[in-house]
Amino acid sequence: MSDPLRPRASLRTAVVWEVLQEALDRRTKSADPASGGVLDVLDTGGGTGKFAVPVARLGHRVTVVDPSPNALFALERRAAEAGVADRVRGVQGDVHGLFDVVERAQYDAVLCHGVLEYVDDPAEGVRNAVAALRPAGTLSLLAAGLGGAVLARALAGHFTEAQHALTDPAGRWGKGDPVPRRFTAEQLSELVTATGLEVGAVHGVRVFADLVPGVLVDTEPGAADALLRLEAAAAELPAFHAIATQLHVLAERG
Question: Of the candidates 108, 130, 131, 125, which has an alpha carbon nearest to the alpha carbon of residue 37?
């Protein structure tokens, strides 16, 4: 997401952005008045800043932890172009070694987006993300969904791969699968509740966007906006969590 307001980018990110923005607004209203309404946000695996920069535009301070120097360089450039370089800090590291580069219990919100698919121990990753939260903190967790991958392989005619993903412990469709691990909504929720956080909401992300031909969205008048509305309407319905490309869990302390 180079910008949450760009329609083409929003097809893949609008649901998460809307939920996250509302959560940050709620956290701002309940924050210590001495903070001036400015939150400290940690974005683990935040890469080039597709969420960090828009969050900084809201006026918050954002620390991005990512293992890629190239991604952090792109983050610095993007933050500067957006005029928020003073509110965005990039640090090289990962969620397993999180407290080698940031302090515990210092953040009002932690974003853990597109991380759990690639780490050796997802449970440890979630525990570290939660340990970075202040007592009244918010966790935003986004990970690859199993059902979306199964549906996509089946619609592409790869029926054996679709069936393999259904039975594979990691949700992979084969050796050529670029995603190391996928989750169900129940699995993600269990990882969160095991840390003591309460799951506030679960959303299906990219339920339809990855299945609709891009040429249709780009050329049919009003198609992009209509698809955005459809994604938003389906996101909260549990029936569609099972076919979403990604799953988003929002959780809070107490």
Answer: 108
Using DSSP's 3-state secondary structure scheme, residue 228 falls into helix
For residues 245 and 76, give the distance between their C-alpha atoms in angstroms, rounded to a whole number.
29
Could you tell me which residues are beta bridge partners of residue 203?
248
Task: Write down the pTM of the prediction.
Answer: 0.91
Domain with CATH 3.40.50.150 in the chain: 7-145+183-252
Q: Which two tokens stand for residue 89?
A: 């800090």
> Each residue of 199-230: pLDDT tens digit?
999 999 999 988 887 777 777 888 888 888 99
- Burial annotation 152-174 (CB, 10 A radius, 16+ → b, else e): bbbeeeeeebbebbeebeebbbe
Helix 7-29 and helix 223-235, axial crossing angle in degrees, nearest 10? 40
> Scanning the structure block, which residue is given the tokens 């993007």?
78
State how far the Cα of 168 lies from the Cα of 138, in Å rounded to an integer: 32
Integer-rounded Cα Rg, in Å, for the chain is 18
Could you please state the CATH topology (level 3) that the domain comprising 7-145+183-252 is classified under.
Answer: Rossmann fold (3.40.50)
